[in-house]
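An example makes the point: we print one protein in full, the chain in one-letter code, the fold tokenised, without further comment:
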Amino acid sequence: MPADGHNGHGLVHLQIGTVGQGDNAVDLVLLGQLERATQEALGDPKAQILPFVSMGSSDGRFLTGLGARVYGYSPVYLWDMTFDTAVTMVHGVNERIHKDSVRLGTDVLSRAAVYAVKEELKND
């Protein structure tokens, strides 16, 4: 492959040396709590969380040095923001989210926080 990374077919080869700091293991208990909270808030027992990797960074990178696991999860209504829309709009010019999606996100994350605290209390 040429030194510029191009393979001659219009594709670019990238090699990632490091992903980030901290423990990269997924907390499956937390993932289950988020999914349950999402299902209840939407009234849809079949709703699923689909993990993906996103380029960029967040302020969460400052917390990994303290041993915190940082996840990005912002539930929004599909009619408000599709994945393609989010990629071009989030942190960009005219960034916005519908008030109903803000309410949904608040509901989901509040429920998940309650489930997490209950789990911690049960384990103590």
DSSP finds three helices and no strands in the chain. The mean pLDDT is 79. The radius of gyration is 18 Å.
